[in-house]
Design a protein that fits this description.
Layout (H helix, E strand, L loop, with lengths): L4 E4 L6 H8 L4 E6 L3 E7 L4 H4 L2 E6 L2 E6 L5 E6 L15 H11 L5 E16 L5 E12 L8 E11 L4 H13 L6 E2 L3 H8 L21 H24 L4 H20 L6 H17 L1 H11 L1 H7 L2 H4 L2 H23 L2 H16 L13 H20 L8 H21 L8 H33 L5 H35 L2 H11 L8
Antiparallel strand pairs: 1-9, 1-10, 2-7, 3-4, 3-7, 4-5, 5-6, 7-8, 8-9
Helix pairs in contact: 6-7, 6-13, 6-14, 7-8, 9-12, 12-17, 14-15, 14-18, 15-16, 16-17
Length: 521
Amino acid sequence: MHKRLEIELPDRFDWQNFLACLRKSFSVSARTHPECLVEFLDTFDWRFFKASICFTRIGTKYELSDIYTGKHIAEFLWRRKKPYRSAAEIIPENLKTKLSKIQGPRAVIRIAELKCKTSSANIINEDGKTIAHISKEQLFLPQDDDGNEKALKNILLLYPIKGYTDEFKIIKKTLDAYGLPAPISAEPLIITALGAIKVVPCKYSSRIRTPLKAELSIQEAAVMLCRDMVKVMTSNEKGIIEDIDIEFLHDYRVTIRRTRALLTQLKGVFSPDKGDAFKQRFGALGKMTNHMRDYDVLLSYREKYQKMLPPVISQGLKPFFQSIVKQRRKEYLKISKYLQSNEYHELISDWSKFLKNVHETEPTQHSEDNVVEFTSKRILKRYHRIVKIAEVIDENTPYDEVHALRIECKKLRYMLEFFAPLYDKNLSDPIARLKKLQTLLGDFNDLCVQSDALSDKIKCLAPKGTKSLHTAAALGGLIALLSIDREEIRYKFKTAISDFICEDNLLYFQNMFAGKMESDP
């Protein structure tokens, strides 16, 4: 099937009379469809749309199709009371895998909806072959609070089928004879729906893409970055409060860390009392979310953990995860309440006011420094610090020292991403090398945190009772397996670290940043 075509129809278009015209040249199999409500679904960060996939729901039927061609990809029926949200809820393994690859840990939410009144027909030639599909569609926005529907489009959609070009020319002649304009490429239905409610797809991103310019002062650039991070934080609040999926809290926490990392790097840019005070307040906010994030990570590994152990042992994990769910619920309620509190709103308000009025305060030691010169010094200094730590890391290095390297890498990564627009090559090469190292360090950290959580749980278990013994056995088995995985990652450190602190990368940093420096601050 070719890309679909559309024609905007006049108000007095007569569908039955038009079909009668087509029947002069072809057989026509027509039907009228019940009016339906089409819900368009996606994740908060638009993962389906970015993959050119339209995810819709009509009643109990969920369907995935190509946004631009309409080609069918997959579908499933959903009989449960609560609407579909996560791929983990899908039973057919092949469909679960397909959806998991797209949406990952994110839940799908409704992003738009349309009412459709449709009449369709198959156009059949003398050989009994369907040569095209055609339909008349009336599109409406559903009723608003006043009970009114808004008409959007009244269109004729044509779906020519490959291999029947000559027959389709005859259909076009019928269109001409009927006084209809030439068909054009049809706008994707999801684009029509989003345009009607003035939603811009893919607008949200957890990445900071502030369009910095080289002539800015470091304070001006910092204010722009911090304002954009406030937007990311506040855009995730509702998802955390409604507990839609775990990525809202993750993105929120990352943005807090980025804000604090930036404040750490900006000594002398803001007044010390103000900068340090906000850094502490955001630090307390981040710390408040630590436990809930740890529980989220543990629960995300539930299925994997169960598969790692023999069935007879894995049954002991059930009480453990039940307790994690309860503990997570307590943390969620605490955080949700805080995000709706006056104290939290005061923090965001104070920070926003500070960023708005900071230019009116007295200049500080570095507030007027050029952004490129200032950041180049700080980036190169951070890189050399990482080199110094990394040179002594091996498979026997204690966890605390590995964790310290991970933190330093995070700070450098944030700086590179913040200020990448200021540099000619956009810093893609050093960021890629750093990301490779960070992935290993992050996996290692996760395994350490998980092992510690499992160990703590074993210590809390009562010494008596069959259920406790089963759980302790399961957790002990997991700790042993995770320890093996952790040691395997340790052996990979050497390669990743060597790649990041190699002479080529050192020269890259020197050439990219040293030439833009004047003197150390």
